[in-house]
Amino acid sequence: MSVLSELKQRRHQLGSSRSIRRLLERRWWVVVLALMFTGLGAALTGVLFKAGIKTLGTWRLELLADLPAWAVLPGLGALGGLVSGLLVTCLAPAAGGSGITHIMGFLKHRPVPMGLQVGLVKLVAGIVAIGSGFPLGPEGPSVQMGGSVAWQMARWLRAPVAFRRVIVAAGGGAGIAAVFSAPIGGFVYAVEELLHSARPVVLLLVIVTTFWADAFADVLGLAGLSPSAGGLDATQGFQLEREYTPIVSFLPIDLGYLIGLGVVVGLLAELYCRYVLAMQRKGDAWFSDRLVLRMVLSGAVLGSVYAFLPEEFHNLEGLQHLIADGKADIPMALGTFTVLFFSTGLAAASGAPGGLFFPMLTLGGAIGLACGYWVEALTGHVPSTYVFAGMGAFVASCSRTPITAMFLAFALTKDLLILKPILVACLASFLVARLFDERSIYERQLGMELKDEDHREARRQRHGGIHHAWGGSIRRRAFTPPPPPEKNNPNLGQDP
């Protein structure tokens, strides 16, 4: 059966490649327009998403400057959960959660709702949830928003089905490129995680889209839409945008240290994956389809927890800067890891629109920083790349995408010398994590969603009748035709 499925998949890939090549030959302008508008749409939604989170986060910090934390954070978290949950429930149920599993489901030919409505609801609901205090990141929503825009562009341009699948994956990678200013990272993510394909025509379409998205994001930043300065200057043109500027050195002795760090991070990352999945299963068992209640309670609990933590934890972006700059001591680094470990699992279990890449980077950086202090105390030497290697290694372990993780961590510094040490740690953590489970956290989340959908369908079939399934499709009990009449029966058609 496995051999037959492989042959079927290869024939499907060859047919898709031929279909896309014919499209390039006969309607090349459709491809060009689709790639450009997908890059623009992914950049626009990603930039607006980051700007909205920044605006709400700044307003929340201003409230904390005037009022005590216990009076602001629990109520604001519950209110954000209420508004975000109502938007998702009433307008686009497919806009809940990370969003990566929805794109993966679509690429596996599942009936997943797509389109601009899903992307716009994801944009607004994600801004409200993360801006009100849910400790999640923008990358998951950016993948879904980019994929939704790409699907809508391909539909408007009447592109063939094979091209729609590729452009949706390219849109997801473009979302990563726009949010992280990492066009290569977005390109590799689309190929490594979403498509699992290396056909030349597919690679060309994806890399063009991600670079379009990164360029458009810089242009939108120059126009004042981005909260950061962006990589485009009005007088000097495109510039190299670096979020951090560490002093990087890489010695041969660092290899052993980095492999050891990768092993530690791989174990902790797999534990984190299992905790997040367990929390999601508990949330589904306790609250079922009551998303609004889940998000309200989760927002209130998260706000109450963060209200009694030091001020550094009230701003997660500032907390990541504290870790990346190496200004946190061991208790602060371990406290950051512990708080984010448990709070992001609760936030993900709530179904809030938000991603896990951003907290994963901070979690990995905290492990790298704490291990760096201990290693230096024991041996007198520590690699200067330990923090960023830990960031990449944690993402690689959870997502099972070591090359993507390497480029995402590299995008924070844009220093070519840091690529090798990050890759060593990413590969070590990736191999350790695969010993426990070959699937990424997103593949396991998708499996849980498909299993829940099958259980709901089985219950519908037991009850019979017409039922509305997820996404508005109508399912009926399977029709069993009557047996055919017997041939050569002389009594057929006569009255008894």
Which key terms come to mind for this protein?
disordered N terminus; 2 domains; 496 residues; globular; mainly alpha; two-stranded antiparallel sheet; two-stranded antiparallel ribbon; Clc chloride channel; 18 helices
How does this model look, in words?
The protein is mainly alpha-helical and 496 residues long. It has two domains: 11-228, Clc chloride channel; 254-444, Clc chloride channel (Orthogonal Bundle), CATH 1.10.3080.10. It is 71% helix and 2% strand. It is built from 18 helices and four strands. It has helices at residues 2-26, 28-66, 69-91, 100-107, 116-131, 139-156, 161-180, 183-195, 200-222, 254-287, 291-307, 316-324, 330-349, 357-379, 386-399, 402-411, 419-434, 441-463; strands at residues 232-233, 237-238, 467-468, 474-475. The protein has a two-stranded antiparallel ribbon. Strands 3-4 form a two-stranded antiparallel sheet. Helix 4 runs antiparallel to helix 7 and helix 10 (254-287) crosses helix 17. It is globular. The model is unreliable at 1-8, 465-479 and 491-496 (pLDDT under 50).
Major sheet size, sense and barrel closure = 2 strands, antiparallel
Q: What would you call the quaternary organization? A: single chain
Indicate the overall shape. Answer: globular
CA(first)-CA(last) distance: 52 Å
Structural class: mainly alpha
The CATH homologous superfamily of the largest domain: Clc chloride channel
Share of helix, binned: over 70%
Number of domains: 2
CATH class of the largest domain: Mainly Alpha
Order of helices and strands: HHHHHHHHHEEHHHHHHHHHEE
Number of helices: 18
How much strand content do the residues show?
under 5%
Number of strands: 4
Instruction: Work out the radius of gyration.
Output: 24 Å
Low-confidence runs: 1-8, 465-479, 491-496
Lateral arrangement of strands in the main beta sheet: 1-2
In the CATH hierarchy, the third-tier topology of the largest domain is known as: Clc chloride channel
Mean pLDDT: 83
Return the CATH architecture of the largest domain.
Answer: Orthogonal Bundle
